[in-house]
Amino acid sequence: MRRPFVAGNWKMNTTAASGCELARAIAEAVPTSRDAVDVLVAPPLPYLDCVDDELAKSAVMLGAQNCYHEKEGAFTGEVSPQMLADLDVDYVILGHSERRHILGETDEDINKKVTAALAAGLGVILCVGETLEEREAGQTNEVLARQLSGGLKGLAADQLAGGVGGNDDLVLAYEPVWAIGTGKTATPEMAQEAHAFLRGKLAEGWGDDLAAATRIQYGGSVKPANAAELLAQPDVDGALVGGASLSAENFLPIVEAAFAQV
Ligand SMILES: O=C(CO)COP(=O)(O)O
């Protein structure tokens, strides 16, 4: 069985004080002895260091929400994968729909970032997902296939599988854009269908072993009330949680729903 993976994407929310308090509450609930589920929080960049301190005595991993593809140099305002690794970041979220649709990132940009992040020893959570118009036009699979092959272009299965005991693997997140922050969740059946499609594409492009090992998270209005039925789907290996990750009261029941699966 693939180890479930629940991640909280805090997006551009919290303050230094409230972020650290939230991290502390999550860390307390997931001590190092509870490692059957991977749990991660991805705070805003300026709070990575203080959140990392709060997570020190827990099994909770640290995530970042973006990076640039260059190591260093004259790229004002950007942050390299090496800098994130230096701050103990385990995984970086790449290709989130907010970066694709608000910040204009292309599959080509995302591919450069995925390649650079994996090369720097970071794990990558690569987000893919269709808009409502694309779903209604029957283009969901086409969009998912394009974003997957675009994001992973030029990468071989052994670069995506992660090292022994390391967190430098590829994780996918299926996040239908119409379900993000809207309260509209994909039904468990819709999520399962998209996840199974993505796993099939991974098998076609990178082989059965990688497809069987790769975790695919679902993201889009995941809440304590719907987490268990989503996580029960055979190809749903975790959740990428936005709004509900901003309070321990909402995030921890989702984490517990994942523990209940193992
Ligand atoms: O975008 C998301 C996580 O990356 C999902 O956000 P919500 O859980 O707020 O819908």
From TrEMBL:
One GO MF term attached to the UniProt entry: triose-phosphate isomerase activity
Family affiliation: Belongs to the triosephosphate isomerase family.
Amino-acid positions noted as binding substrate in the UniProt annotation, renumbered to this chain: 9-11, 181, 221, 242-243
Enzyme class: isomerase
PANTHER family xrefs: TRIOSEPHOSPHATE ISOMERASE
Enzyme Commission designation: 5.3.1.1
Single GO cellular component term: cytosol
Pathway membership: Carbohydrate degradation; glycolysis; D-glyceraldehyde 3-phosphate from glycerone phosphate: step 1/1; Carbohydrate biosynthesis; gluconeogenesis
Membrane spanning stretches: none
Keywords of this entry: Cytoplasm, Gluconeogenesis, Glycolysis, Isomerase
Primary role: Involved in the gluconeogenesis. Catalyzes stereospecifically the conversion of dihydroxyacetone phosphate (DHAP) to D-glyceraldehyde-3-phosphate (G3P).
Subunit-level organization: Homodimer.
Localization per record: Cytoplasm
Gene Ontology biological process terms, A to Z: gluconeogenesis; glyceraldehyde-3-phosphate biosynthetic process; glycerol catabolic process; glycolytic process
Protein name: Triosephosphate isomerase
Active site: 96, 175
The organism of origin for this protein: Alienimonas californiensis
Reaction(s) catalysed by this chain's protein: D-glyceraldehyde 3-phosphate = dihydroxyacetone phosphate
